[in-house]
Amino acid sequence: MSRRLRLLGVAGAVAFGCTSGPTAPSGASAACDPLSTSANAVLPIFGRPFDGPSLIGNFFDHDKPIDGDANGYVLTLCGARDTKQVDGHPGYDWRMPEGTPLFAVADAVVLTAGLEAPHFCAQLNRTVQALYVQLVHTAPTGVLYVSVYGHLSRIDVQEGASVSEGTVIGLSGNTGCSGTPHLHFGVARNIDGNVNGNWILIDPYGWHASTGDPWALDPRGAVSVWLWKDGAAPSLR
Terminus of the chain with fewer CB atoms < 10 Å: N or C? Predict the structure, then answer.
């Protein structure tokens, strides 16, 4: 049975946001070509989750990545407001052909590999379930991170298995509350050293604006961290 992780301040923590609405690529005007050198914090442990370029859709909403706490815009990692994206989005979406191989971004243990709980998707006017995978990674610092791959068409790993960075964990798809074939990718950080404990969503690209990160200042939030190795971060344009 799939395991649900408890996200502080976030109800219904299934797949960290795969229940968001159908996705189509937004304009790239809010992108800022973030680099590790401009991030607020850096811990380079992630490789690429897929090969090749893919159009960016929705960004991680730094104000705030919580469904139901809408304020009419997404605040990107560079501090730009974008009203074209899914408000409250808890990760990143990349449009790609269905069946694109997806890779473990780091050595991990498979926490979840299967279908999310059934739920009603208002945009599609039907009950849906997305295929998704959650991988737990232990950083050199000892902190646990989980990476989430949502809307898959096929899963190639089993819960409890150990996988190495670069292992194909499944194929991208269009399952669940999704209107365009794409990958939803999200990350959360464990705060109590217990995989069955509490997790907080973070942005794996960190924060790049000169002002304070609203999500880091929120009592439900945390400091985001650039987690990508050199050359591994998918483009945000």
Answer: N
